[in-house]
Amino acid sequence: EVKVGMITTLSGGGAGLGIDVRDGFMLAVKQSGRDDIDVVIEDDQQKPDIAVQLADKMIQSEKVDVLTGIIWSNLAMAVVPAAVAQGKFYLSPNAGPSALAGAGCHPNYFNVAWQNDNLHEAAGAYANTAGHKNTFILAPNYPAGQDALTGFKRFFKGDLAGEIYTQLGQTDYAAEIAQIRASGADSVFFFLPGGMGISFLKQYADSGVGLPVVGPAFSFDQGILQAVGDAALGVVNTSQWSKDIDNPTNKAFVETFQAEYGRLPSLYASQGFDTANLLISALDKAAPSDADAFRAALEAADFSSTRGAFRFGPNHHPIQTIYAREVIKEGDVFTNKIIGVALEDHADAYAAECKM
Amino acid sequence: MIGERWINLAVPLALLAVPLYALMADEPFTITLATRATILALAAVGLNIALGIGGLVSLGHAVFFGLGGYAMGILAFHAQNYSPLEIGPLTFAGTKSMPVIWLVAVIVSAMAALLIGALSLRTSGVYFIMITLAFGQMFYYFAISWSAYGGEDGLSIYVRNGFPGLNTLVPIQFFAVCFVVLCLALALNAMLRASPFGLALNAARQVPQRVETVGLNPMRLKLMAFVISGAITGLAGALFADLNRFVSPSMFSWQLSGELIILIVIGGVGRLMGPVVGACLFVALEHWLGGLTDFWHVWLGVVLLGIVLFARGGVVGLLTGKAGPHV
Amino acid sequence: MSEPILATHALCKSFGALTATDDVSIDLRAGEIHAIIGPNGAGKSTLIAQICGALAPDAGTVELLGRDVTGLSTQARAQAGLARTFQISALAMEDTVLDNALLGALGAAGNPWRLWGRVSRDAALRDRAMAALDRVGLADHAGTRTADLSHGQRRQLEVAVALTLAPRAFVMDEPMAGLGAEGSRVMTGFLDGLRQEAPILLVEHDMDAVFALADRISVLVYGQVIATGTVDEIRADPAVRAAYLGEEA
Amino acid sequence: MSLVLIAEQVLNGLQFGVMLFLMAAGLTLIFGVMGLINLAHGSLYMVGAFAAAAVAGATGSFLLALVAALAAAALAGAIVEMVVIRRLYAAPHLDQVLATFALILIFSEGTRWVFGSFPLYLDIPDWLSGPVTLPGGIAYPLYRLALIGVGLAVAAGLWWLTARTRLGIQIRAGENDREMVAALGVDISRLYTLVFALGAGLAGLAGALVGAIQSVQVGMGEPVLILAFVVIVIGGIGSIKGAFIGALLVGLTDTLGGIFLPELFKLFMEPGAATQTGSALASMAIYILMSLVLVWRPSGLFGARA
Amino acid sequence: MLEVRDLTARYGASQALFGVDLTVAEGQAVALMGRNGMGKTTTVKAICRIIPSQGTLTLEGKDLHRLPSFRVARLGVGLVPEGRRCFRDLTVRENLLATARPGDWTLQSVTALFPRLGERAGQRAASLSGGEQQMLAIGRALMTNPRLLILDEATEGLAPIIRQEIWAAIARLRQETGMAILLIDKSIRELAQVSDRAVIVERGQTVWQGAMSDLTPEITERFVGV
Ligand SMILES: Nc1ncnc2c1ncn2[C@@H]1O[C@H](COP(=O)(O)OP(=O)(O)OP(=O)(O)O)[C@@H](O)[C@H]1O
Ligand SMILES: Nc1ncnc2c1ncn2[C@@H]1O[C@H](COP(=O)(O)OP(=O)(O)OP(=O)(O)O)[C@@H](O)[C@H]1O
Ligand SMILES: [Mg+2]
Ligand SMILES: [Mg+2]
Fold first, then answer.
1. Domain total for chain D?
2. Is residue B142 part of a domain?
3. A12 interaction partners in chain B (CB closer than 8 Å)
4. C45 with E130: Cβ contact below 8 A
5. Which residues form the ABC transporter domain (chain C) (predicted)?
6. What pLDDT was estimated at residue D306?
């Protein structure tokens, strides 16, 4: 019997992501057929202080062995260091702040999704391939946004026609779009998660600027894409997962997920699914109470991922292939199609700083 | 109907009984919840001095809560990294001692309250609400982009700060610290409202022109209340940061300011125990309803609506059968 | 003739095109009741507001006990010995009658910064407040919530608060307003005795009271003092009759 | 930075201001006129956007969607007024704050219950999409020009309603003394339900109009609520003119601040840090503006009451 | 036309009226008298349905207890409330128009009665002098063209000359329009001149009522104190 504590966002505007992670995770648990995995799920309301208290609850009262579920970097930063310091294992299904990948890495912390910079780095690499020479980049002014632009610049070889930080939660981008138009750029890279991305894309499409756009998968994911609509068609985005990645695990995942929940799985669902499978693969080998053996079993990552090949780097972050996808319309549904590989077997930039 | 005196006695006892019971039943998380309620109550007790007696509806009290939190965060961060804290030409060592942190939290928030109060008190009514909100938002956006201390990600402190003679990592001991601070704040509040200052402040809320014509300065009375209020809320912020061992800009958010007001309204505006009752009820609701359904906010809303519509003067008002002051 | 306790010199105040007080110079001497009468809108309340510091005059000065107080705030003037009652009661309605009186006592003591000790247990403050309530006949209502008082009782409390200040001069804006016939009579008797303590600048439309009380009367019309004199002089003044008194008296 | 770009950005600022006014218009009406602090205004805005998205999805007609948004929000407003708000006019302001906060919770999570957790699709109709070229060579989205038009029309209509009609006079009288208005023969309850529904309807209309170029999602109303409050407080509560000027000021400050502050900091800082500092300051700009205005004029630019 | 019998009312926990009886016949002027705090204003508020009450309360046979405040007004009851209560933020003109109903009283006739209101037509009510506000309150009630006018301390704070005008106006109103009037005022002399009947309340109860001519100095001395 293992107890897993899942702290994720189930209410409010960001609930979609948490629900997908949870559903993906629970699907894998169900498919494993194991009845000795007890998952305790709690809603963090996207508030750091609530998340911390839920972690306390799970550790103190529920006596969980493994924690998982957090969507947002700032919540992860609030919960993870304390949790792993108390000897718990934490498997991240989404957030991957650089602080936890570099100097702040920990033997009990595993990231099953990506380091925050990864998809942006891939976008930079793709922009090179696509022949973009002069790009305009923008992101919200907060740590993840700053990381995004840094990540993009790390791989992009062309010039920057402009670099803007927008306000977190901004909904109107007329001014930014005017700047893009005037900048003489040949392309645009943006990282605007959630509603910000929807607003930007709609307004960008309506402005008639028409330059090619590249972005990380977050603004083009299954859950959000329908809301963006035509404005997203043809946009290239980078992702470590896509529903058309051709391997049996992924095919089965997409099918069973759709059958179980009546909707297409998203990036987050795949990450939840992989997280659960990683956990199950480790449980097959050792119990969490035997921390060293369990850790070794996790490090081995001996499970079949929806992404195909999956392994951990020395800092317990994935080394994985990141694809370039294009938004297409299949019948009435907007979705993504892989058009190439942006970065092969990509590791994050912070591994070297990690001493463990 | 119950006399307010009984409520003033029973509520703290009940708040004390919960974690003691949890200690015996070995439910450490219940102690954490009680601690959370205690700290939020402390913050709201602070606000209630400005709001309940002085009629100053501040939608910016998160500023002080956050400043208290960051006072803890920054001092402990520097202690944790063994790096000195440099402010201009001055350098300070960080610290992990609660009393020192509290002192800093109180002083910093009192100074901020003095400044914000002096500017905001030029206005009144809804304008006051909004100008305090504006200050709150300024601090919030500043904290978000202040990358030296983590920006939006906040600051994690790995080990709870220490209090001489106690092991604050033990939940019940940390609760005891918070509870004693809350009781002191309540005592201060009770003393204030009966004191000459309280009388004058109370009148300054209702008829400032009358207070002027008896030779007193209503602005200064209110400013004083605002400063005391901010200092207490700042202290609560430091404790809250210690409870979570984490600070982030969300401590500055307007939602938090709003939540503090709401705690007071639930409990009863201007009632000594209003904030305490409100905080306990809110934390309990959040905890119990959260387990029921994904859409528990709907039910939380319904309960709150019920309180407004059927309990004039908040829960304390319902129990005593009297409406509170009109704010 | 003694030094005036309170005096205005050429006070002027306009609201836009309207001149509410126009070059008003009046004074108040020890032991007297000086009544200001005049048609509605003549500028009486505006004059009082300037004397008490609620409005800044456009020109002119206000002098209290020989000192120029024009630049002082309301509370500084109150501390210097000026007590005012409002035309429309300004009282802390949620508090008890005693609390309102205590506020006055606190103002007289001049130190509201004591954060400890029950104000109601402070014998000095309490005695002072109760004495004032007693004098206006509200002692029995000390524990009543002010909001529960009738209009008339509120007027009495308004005066009581002024009394607690033991001021050097009173400025009263229509203290009889809202009082019944009996109440007015009682108040008249009361003010009559009060003038020994401190002189009263009295704005009032109740002519029975004014004629019974006033040592001097000034008549304000369109912001200007058109006449000053004793009761008989004013009663006989045709200009005053035309502008204000009508056939009365 | 070219002159044309600057002109375009000023236009953007004005346009954003008009959009803000559209969002604030209903709030001014309810807040200024009825003296009610309605935190749930943002929720009504959201209701409008969701209703529009649902109807546009079902019928494909944008105009029908707008009508639906107006109707749904007005209906929600009327119900809310009759069930909850009506009992709170005499209550302290803070009770209204708590009640309308509770309404936010109910509306937000209720909407998520009905529509799910993902953003909905609502787009500009074809006949309003794409840019047009303005004199001076500025390519400007037609839809945004249409928004400006609607905003101006709403401003004029509201001003006319409150200042020129007897209904408006009665509404304002009711704010001063509800009891007396009723005692003199005006059915104040019905009047207030009407006003609340109208304010709510305007919020819903704004939600739909703005929703077409933004994200229609749960929680979309809260940031709008704060902005709308900032706008009407800067302008002075109860003044439609104030709200309009306030909205333009906020729009210009926000837009131009976001563009020029980073540029300004680049003059004496290295570009990366300058962008960060500049945009940090830009996000505070409207709040700084608001506190400056209030310190200067404690009851807003056109506030009636001292 | 107005019939009040055994009216009781309370403010929260404290009872203010213990049984007020009062009738006003068509075209009659009735003075409601009593010391301060005896329940005159409370009676008026109950009649206008501003506060809840029990007992008999009918206007021309219609039970007012079944009607909300605004319906009572529309039946023809015009109130000049104690303390004026003008709409502070409205201009004088708007105050007059806000609740106007069609009839003989119009903006012209009211400003003819109170020329000062005409002069101040565009000014905010809050900045009017006390007396001007009082005129405005009367004018406002007249503009609803009532058949029963209730004046609660309507001459409070007015200059003698204006008070005389108002009393004259009231007398004229009675003669010319036959409007019924319920009056509360502290000046017994003037009440006696215009009223037909008097009702005296003491501690929330009617203690005396009858024709004005029957009101002896002993009675007023006993109940009103003069
Ligand atoms: N803030 C203001 N703005 C414009 N006009 C004002 C203001 N305050 C007062 N007034 C005008 O100034 C004149 C004098 O007003 P004031 O209140 O002093 O009269 P008053 O003599 O006290 O009258 P009353 O006896 O009726 O109380 C009035 O015509 C009034 O309308
Ligand atoms: N809002 C209120 N709340 C509680 N009690 C009140 C309220 N208003 C009046 N009372 C009480 O009701 C009683 C009757 O008051 P009311 O105002 O009817 O007297 P009144 O005869 O009009 O006196 P006055 O001549 O002073 O106006 C008084 O004892 C008063 O204390
Ligand atoms: Mg006056
Ligand atoms: Mg009365």
1. 1
2. yes
3. 297
4. yes
5. 6-247
6. 38
> How many A from CA of C153 to the centre of ligand 4?
11
- Cα-to-centroid distance, C176 and ligand 3 (Å): 13
Most confident range (mean pLDDT) of A51-55, A249-253, C105-109, C177-181 is A249-253
Q: Express each pLDDT in D93-143 by its tens digit.
A: 888 888 988 999 999 989 988 988 888 888 888 888 888 888 877 888 999
Residue D55: which domain range? 12-218
Chain C CB contacts of E119 under 8 Å are none
Residue D279 inside a domain? The answer is: no
Return mean pLDDT, chain A. 91
Task: Find the CB nearest B304 among D102, D298, D305.
Answer: D102
Cβ D109–A11 below 8 Å, yes or no? yes
Look at residue D215 in the predicted model and tell me its pLDDT: 87
The domain tally of chain B equals: 1
C157 and C180 housed in the same domain: no
**CB-closest option in B191, B198, B202 to C92:** B202
What is the C-alpha to C-alpha distance for residues A201 and D250, in angstroms, rounded to an integer?
Answer: 24
Asked if residue C88 belongs to a domain, the reply is no
Task: Report the C-alpha gap between D111 and D116 in whole angstroms.
Answer: 7
D27 in a domain, yes or no?
yes
From atom 4 of ligand 2, which residue's Cα is the shortest distance away?
C148
What is the C-alpha separation between A228 and A327, in angstroms, rounded? 11
**Is A40 within 8 Å of chain B by CB?**
no
- Domain membership flag for residue D90: yes
CATH number at residue B201: 1.10.3470
**Distance between CA E8 and CA E22 in Å, rounded?**
12
Per-residue buried b or exposed e for D150-186, using 16+ beta carbons within 10 Å of the residue's own CB: bbeebbeebbebbeeeeebbbbbbbbbbbbbbbbbbb
Say whether D287 and B137 touch across the interface (CB within 8 A). yes
Residues E74, E105: contact at Cβ < 8 Å?
no
Q: What is the mean pLDDT of chain B?
A: 90
What is the distance in angstroms between the CA of the first residue and the CA of the last residue of chain A? Answer: 29
ipTM of the complex: 0.88
CATH number of E2-76+147-224: 3.40.50.300
Confirm whether B98 is domain-assigned.
yes
User: How are strands ordered across the β-sheet holding C169-173?
Assistant: C82-85, C169-173, C200-203, C33-37, C216-221, C224-229
| C neighbour chains, 3+ CB pairs within 8 Å | B, E
Is E169 a residue whose pLDDT tops 50?
yes
Domain finish residue from C135, C166, C197: C166
Is the shortest distance between the CB of C189 and ligand 1 below 6 Å? Answer: no
